Amino acid sequence: MSTKLETIGLAKTYRETPALLPTDLRVAAGEFLTLLGPSGSGKTTLLQMISGLVEPSAGQLLIDGRDATHDAPGKRGIGMVFQSYALFPHMTVWDNVAYGLRMRKLPRAELAPAVDAALTMVKMQAFAQRLPSELSGGQQQRIALARCFAFRPSIILLDEPLGALDKKLREHMQMEIRRLHQELGATFIYVTHDQDEALTLSDRICLMNQARIEQIGTPAQLYDRPATRFAADFLGHSNLLDGVVERVADGRVALRVGDRLVPIGPSPDLPAAGAASLLVRPEAARLTSPEEGALAGTIREVVFLGADTRAIVSLGQGAERDDGADFTVRCPRDLTPCVGERVGLAWDHGRATLLTR
Ligand SMILES: Nc1ncnc2c1ncn2[C@@H]1O[C@H](COP(=O)(O)OP(=O)(O)OP(=O)(O)O)[C@@H](O)[C@H]1O
Ligand SMILES: [Mg+2]
Q1: Looking at the structure, do residues 38 and 93 belong to the same domain, yes or no?
Q2: 292: which of 115, 205, 306, 348 is 20 to 30 A away, CA to CA?
Q3: What is the pLDDT of residues 195-232, one digit of tens each?
Q4: What is the atom index within ligand 1 of the atom nearest the CA of 38?
């Protein structure tokens, strides 16, 4: 796939404080890339430098292989959608969508077909003559999307576009955005701090943390093989056992967690000592007898989730282990563990990830 957009050492500093450290990022043509990360991690800053709304402190931006670092925003072929819909309140839906096209001096004869096509795409043709104040939040966001798509930008930047909507509408609009991405074939860069949204929508996720990229990869890569403890903790439900790597008998290694030694699978490239965390996802673990498990604990809570059940096992039975420590196991529906029951926790080594960063 050809590269649509590339940043080379792109960085932004505000009064000596980095909002984005020098960042290299490559986005393929037609890709749906999501910038995911906690508040203040630099997502909007990166997006705004791509759009041209914020001037970089250093580095370069290439679009279609051409240096676009200092191009005016209107010259980049980029459309933007924000959380606040930023519709003009005194203009009808139709005129709101037409506005960007008029600004771009689209010939009069092409204007009406382009506006109608954009409104059709978001299924809002029937609302063309309404004012924004006469629309629901979801409908307003659809118009904001139509206004952006109308001039057929080849890159579309979306900054938490669904942040103001309730959960159900959000999920509906996520499907709409996926469909629009497929229909338009444009390159999408989407900002969110909602991990489920990122997993649902993206070809790749760029996880950001403290003004830099923590990890970038497909949703499955980030979920199954997080590179750092932060990535493991941020994406999906995680059981993270923090401890110190120790050599045990016949060259094998284990993780010392408090007063317990948790076996870890064969890891030839592992440092012989040092702090590490073992990640075990709830669906990779199972309940066994206390003697058989790598860890033992007491079932504190059983949560019924429809398709399956989660047992929350408290590991804090005296000892040195922090008493707040829980371990969540996804159980098949027909298994109904009892609160208070003493259980063991087991998993296949291949489904656990040892993290040393
Ligand atoms: N105009 C500005 N002046 C000074 N500091 C800024 C400015 N804009 C952003 N920052 C700082 O840069 C850092 C990154 O901000 P940014 O808006 O990119 O975060 P974000 O990841 O989009 O967060 P959120 O999820 O809250 O929107 C923050 O620490 C922020 O305070
Ligand atoms: Mg932001």
Answers
A1: yes
A2: 306
A3: 999 999 999 999 999 999 999 999 999 998 899 999 99
A4: 25
